Amino acid sequence: MRITVDGLIFGRQRVGGISRMWCEWLRRLPDAGVDVDLVLPLGAPAEVRCIVRSNRLAVRAIHDPFFWPKRYFERTAVRAALLNRLYVPRKCRLFHSTYFSTLQRRGVQTVVSLYDMILERLYADSPNPWVHWGIAIKRRSLENADCIAAISEHT
To answer: Which ranges of the chain have pLDDT less than 70?
Structure first.
């Protein structure tokens, strides 16, 4: 089976729990018979680049020069259009988002990993517009998902 993974988290977080978890998944998926097309932002951490090099046949990198550390390319509609037009192969049947991106294409099942609800639980009343923007992106991604993978019982 071949899946497409949007490696958005590797552009947002060089070191941390979510990127560490994804590195482990990318290492183990080939052993489970899963081949991965990984949309990888330029400047991704060395660890994930090593995984791609060591599993070249099973994990194929699709480089994403449009990921900048700016919020424009993370907007739901903009990211979906980039993924759909440039990065996700036409024969793709399963898409997994590492950090709340979405793909709106008929015939493609979408999986989103949900890590926590910290923004919603602790900061929903915050006057900070970035908090509300983050909540809105997460909500749209979850609403568009065919499957949500919650990584803990608490989540």
So the answer is: 68-74
6-33 burial, b at 16+ Cβ within 10 Å, e below that, comes to bbbbbbbbeeeebbeebbebbbebbeee
Among candidate residues 77, 80, 96, the one with its CA nearest the CA of residue 37: 96
Sign of the dihedral defined by the CA atoms of residues 55, 59, 61, 67, in that order: negative
Query: The tokens of 155 are what?
Result: 């989540």
**Burial of residue 154, with CB atoms counted within 10 A of its CB: 0-12 exposed, 13-18 middle, 19 or more buried:** exposed
Amino acid (one-letter) located at 145: A
pLDDT reported for residue 73:
65
Which residues, other chains included, contact 135 with Cβ-Cβ below 8 Å and sequence gap of 6+?
119, 120, 124
